[in-house]
Write a structure and sequence with these properties.
- It is a single chain.
- The protein is α/β, with parallel strands linked by helices.
- The chain has four domains: 31-144, Glutaredoxin, CATH 3.40.30.10; 152-252, Glutaredoxin, CATH 3.40.30.10; 257-379, Glutaredoxin (3-Layer(aba) Sandwich); 386-433.
- The chain has 15 helices and 16 strands.
- Residues 1-36 form the signal peptide.
- Belongs to the protein disulfide isomerase family.
- Keywords: Disulfide bond, Membrane, Redox-active center, Signal, Transmembrane, Transmembrane helix.
């Protein structure tokens, strides 16, 4: 495998019509959807209002439905609603269409319970009646681009340099992109169908030497894995047997070096590799950028591990779970299993500024040789971190409810009167209130 920088195509345009034009090449080969069988649902580009009596019918009536499970009192839900209103008519115009719907899960709690709704808003995509969690962006133009992935063909055939460029641009930056150069579609069709929700797949059999130079491959067949958001790519020359191909695809779904955040942790849930976490003072400073460059070189040679970095300034709660505090010398590297355990390497407590490449290599050698100290994290697990924000909100709500109930019970409680003890009872009440 080789890696090289790649031009990034912006997806930040707020012009939704332009976005649809960019997405059209990905949808041309998609089969048309059958017309709605019930008159109660009109594909008019408006957000459908669902409730107990029509929820199941709507889900079964359309192949693709994005459902917003909301509560009227939820501030985040109120901010999301206009974005869904903007996206709905354009998603309805895709081929096949994606219908946008919403249900008041606070009112229709049976529906919320059936679909494990434990926070608002929760978005789910129902594909042929089967729900999957939607964790993508929520601005209208990016949401459109993200959902187009669900209805596009598993593999897109590209027949020219311009088609390749258009495919990359229309795919956006939310998913990795795989392009098989000189590769038969049948060789990757199974993997494309299996990982359709996580990446774009295509094959190109007519391209110039300029394309070969741009994507840094010198022979075919070759499979390029591209992460436009991280300006990163790698090349796989085979063998194109299913096991080796799947290993490469699974490893390439995550960039060489992952910036760790609440959102990016979600991409690690199905990956069994351990995570080399480099803890920095501030992800944005020049020193950190130098460390990240060194980590990319190490990650390229150690694809059996995931490499990630996080700044103390950016996510203090996560960092402190690994016993890293304000006075801890940084950068520091640990190896995390994504659950409750992590390892520190003896003699590699921190990375000095001089000759960082050698120090990172020494850290990895020490880890592979077993010169480690096993430790228990002091914070949540991977799933715990992902759910932590919702958990905090629920805890605060519960505490508030308990306090209110206690105050009500206290204020309505009648104390028994006893002869000659009135002043004492007043004193006791004052003590309780204090």
């Amino acid at each position: 495998m080789a890696s090289s920088p790649l031009p990034i195509y912006s997806s930040s345009s707020s012009y939704l019509q332009r976005r649809v034009l960019l997405l059209l090449p990905l949808l041309l080969l998609s089969p048309p959807i059958a017309a709605a069988s019930e008159n109660q649902f009109k594909l008019d580009g408006k957000v459908l209002e669902l409730h107990d009596s029509n929820f199941d019918a709507a889900i079964s009536n359309f192949d693709y439905v994005l459902v917003d499970f909301y509560a009227p009192w939820c501030g985040h839900c109120k901010r999301l609603a206009p974005e869904l209103d903007k996206a709905a008519p354009i998603l309805a115009g895709l081929n096949p269409p994606v219908v946008v719907a919403k249900v008041d899960a606070d009112k229709y709690r049976k529906i919320g319970s059936e679909h494990d709704i434990d926070g608002y808003p929760t978005l789910k995509v129902f594909m042929h009646g089967v729900p999957t969690e939607y964790n993508g962006p929520r601005k209208a133009d990016l949401l459109i681009q993200f959902l187009t992935k669900f209805v596009a063909p598993a593999v897109t055939n590209l027949s020219s340099d311009s088609a390749i460029k258009s495919f990359i641009e229309s795919a956006g930056v939310n998913f990795p992109v795989f392009i098989g150069f000189g590769l038969n579609e049948s060789m990757i069709s199974n993997m494309a169908a299996k990982y359709k929700k996580k990446a774009w797949f295509s094959v190109a059999n007519d391209f110039s030497e300029d394309i070969m130079s741009l994507y840094d491959f010198d022979k075919v067949p070759a499979l390029a894995a591209i992460h436009p958001a991280y300006n990163e790519q790698s090349i796989f020359y085979g063998p194109f047997e299913e096991k080796f191909l799947e290993d490469y695809i699974k490893q390439s779904l995550i960039p060489l070096v992952l910036p760790i955040s609440l959102d990016s942790l979600k991409s690690l849930r199905d990956d069994q590799r351990k995570v080399v976490v480099t803890i920095l003072e501030d992800e944005e400073d020049d020193k950190s950028k130098g460390v990240i460059k060194v980590l990319k070189a190490a990650a390229s040679a150690n694809r059996d591990l995931i490499f990630g970095y996080v700044g103390f300034k950016q996510w203090e709660e996560f960092v402190e779970s690994f016993e890293v505090y304000r006075k801890t010398p940084l950068p520091k590297m640990i190896v995390w299993d994504g659950d409750e355990q992590y390892s520190t390497v003896i003699g590699s407590e921190s990375i000095e500024e001089n000759d960082m490449g050698t120090q990172v290599s020494r850290f990895l050698e020490g880890y592979r040789e077993g010169n480690v100290i096993q430790k228990q994290i002091s914070g949540p697990t991977l799933v715990g971190f992902i759910n932590s924000q919702f958990g905090v909100r629920i805890a605060l709500i519960l505490i508030f409810v308990v306090v209110v109930m206690a105050m009500i019970l206290f204020m309505t409680k009648e104390e028994p009167l006893t002869v000659g003890t009135r002043d004492q009872s007043n004193d006791v009440r004052t003590d309780k209130e204090d």
